Amino acid sequence: MTHTDHKTTFLKHMSTRLGRRAVLKGVGAGLVAASVGGTLPGIARAQQSGHLRIASIKVIDTLDPHFTGFLSAIQVINNIHNGLLKITYDGGEVRFEPDLAETWDLEDDRTHVFKLREGVKFHDGTDCDAEAVKFSLLRVKEGEPESPHAWKLAQLDEVEIVDPLTVRLHFSEANAFLPVALNGSTGRAGTIVSPAAVQKFGQDYGRNPVGTGPFRFVSWRENDAIELEANPDYFEAGLPKLERVTFVLMNEASTAVAAMLSGQIDGMTDCPMQLVPQVEAFPGAELYGEIEGNYTFLGMNTQRSPFDDINLRRAVAWALDRDTILKQAYFGRAIQAYTPISPPMTQFYDPDIASSGRGQRFDLEKAKSFRAQAANQGEVEAVYMMAERGPVGTRVAQTVAPMLAQIGIKANLELIEPATWVSRRNASDFDLYDFEWVADLDPDEAIYPEFRSDGAWNYCGWQNAEFDRLCAEAQVTLETEERRRLYYAAEDLLMDEAPIGIMAHMPIYKVFSTKVQGFQYIPADLVNLHSVSLA
Questions:
Q1: Cα separation values, 15 from 6, 97, 166, 375, 456, Å
Q2: pLDDT of residue 11
Q3: What is the pLDDT at residue 30?
Q4: From CA 512, how far away is CA 520, in angstroms rounded?
């Protein structure tokens, strides 16, 4: 393929993923242009009013976008910060649109030029300019300590400052994942932070975040609340509409629902499935949620006994009765997952995967056959750590344990506090655990950082050089069909060697009072409050 063909292919690839307000003008003529109304100096200021109180029931580790791996944190972060791009949703497809970038030009398939909005300030009054963009991108790519999102910018060779509002990004390879990486919420590699604030607070930036977003950080009271206030100088005309937002930190979802129904709070960032019927029956609440870009799984520690035995892992993967899990653990609201690629990835998800033969599924006889090949033919004991966290709490563990007993594995269920659970997971201090990777909008982020041999989130410790190679090749491949082939091959290795037993793609529910208006749902577990108002 010629260089020009690469360029054309990239433009075609990008045009299928960028939003309706994006303008394709051809190479070198403004690949993406933001709407003009939000970029002019002296934009109309919003008249903020109202105080939204929203419960956050999951652990928040840090408000530093370049270091968090928690969507609960991103739900707060993306109200404080912006990215070069942002995620939008039209009810049918997730797209990527300009945010801090006003235009996006392609000089060739490896050289991208971003023209920034004029006059944008960080909440500390400093300029959001080309220097700030360069600082943020290099902080992700090569900063110390290392960002878990550094892999997203692995092909970035140079950030060139053309003028105070223009940066030219030079990549060693074409980068098909770039739109996802450069969005300011789930992507995080393209989230722009205040250099002055990072230099001022150092390692404590995550407790003192300073962005350009619709709300400014005020305070974080441990085990109590995170307070935000409106940014009166926000660059989008008429936004935000709220004066204040409080994320009320609640450990118990049932307590949050009770507070919601009694009017003490106005919403919940997440509503566990077992509580959804209670919310649905309440006329003063509105529920948001559909099958999102995610997958749930049973994780096995491949770096120690007993699950360093591939045949034992395979036995587990085929012993999981997904129909029973969906009914008992997910209340019939999720769908079976055969591989990590999920329905919102419309260019890659196979709607006929159930009949394709690919992936993992329930087959007890096959599970017993693998079990017969395992090194330990006696009863295997394994500690299954669980916590009251996530959409279904401990229900998966309680449902799965009897299934493991059918293949001679005694799962000792250990209930621990959510924060302890996170610490032990991060340290790979477990035999078994269940989890969900959420807000995945591209196959690369669905499997690469989680299962790359040296991946930051590879808690199961699985290593496979061919998997690494396939994903790395897919990252620099622009043709969708070829990317699909590479990711399917990588998934097939993952499902065969089974560091995880995959279970479900699920809806993640958010709840707001009916007096909350203007919430824009995005199937990526986001809570964007810039357009929200209170009736």
A1: 14, 11, 22, 52, 31
A2: 54
A3: 47
A4: 12
Which residue in 325, 449, 433, 443 sits closest to 389, CA to CA? 433
Q: Please tell me whether residue 106 adopts helix, strand or coil conformation.
A: strand
Q: Which candidate, 72, 436, 508, places its Cα nearest to that of 250?
A: 72
> How far apart are the C-alpha atoms of 44 and 318, rounded to whole Å?
59
User: What sign does the CA torsion over 67, 72, 78, 79 have?
Assistant: negative
**Predicted structure pTM score:** 0.84
3-state helix, strand, coil in the chain (%, to 5): 30, 25, 45
**Interatomic CA distance for residues 67 and 74, integer angstroms:** 11
Burial (CB < 10 A; 0-12, 13-18, 19+), residue 381, is exposed
Considering only CA atoms, which of 57, 513, 49 is closest in space to residue 263?
A: 513
Count the helices and strands in the chain (H runs, E runs): 15, 24
Res. 33: pLDDT tops 70 = no
Tell me whether residue 107 is exposed, middle or buried, using C-beta atoms within 10 angstroms of its C-beta: 0 to 12, 13 to 18, 19 or more: middle
Residue partners of 277: CB distance under 8 A and separation at least 6: none
Closest listed residue to residue 525, CA positions, set 73, 85, 191, 61: 73
